[in-house]
Amino acid sequence: xxxxxxxxxxxxxxxxxxxxxxxxxxxxxxxxxxxxxxxxxxxxxxxxxxxxxxxxxxxxxxxxxxxxxxxxxxxxxxxxxxxxxxxxxxxxxxxxxxxxxxxxxxxxxxxxxxxxxxxxxxxxxxxxxx
Length: 130
Known about the structure:
There is one protein chain. The chain has 130 residues and is mostly helical. It is 58% helix and 0% strand. The chain has six helices and no strands. The chain is globular, with a radius of gyration of 14 Å. The N and C termini lie close together (12 Å).
């Protein structure tokens, strides 16, 4: 796994705090922020995020339901990496929350007895992949 993939999975699994994640995300160049958002969208799909997860994602993210990324997600639209730069951190917080909800459910339903997914066994690995 790439270092940014490890960080995103650690955030989803609560191995890193949201504050650490936002600090990491904000330190990235804008192009890399957009790539991280694109990766998060893919991870949400792989984790089988559901439209029903959106209200909890908005609540967990700490952004207002009226912010553009939240409105987009409410309409099940994921083009957040194309938003203006000032919306990227809000999008990141929201997508991390959605990924966390979906991945937690996926681990409980499909990986409860253990699994070989490298990204579900991060707590046994080093915390700082960078």
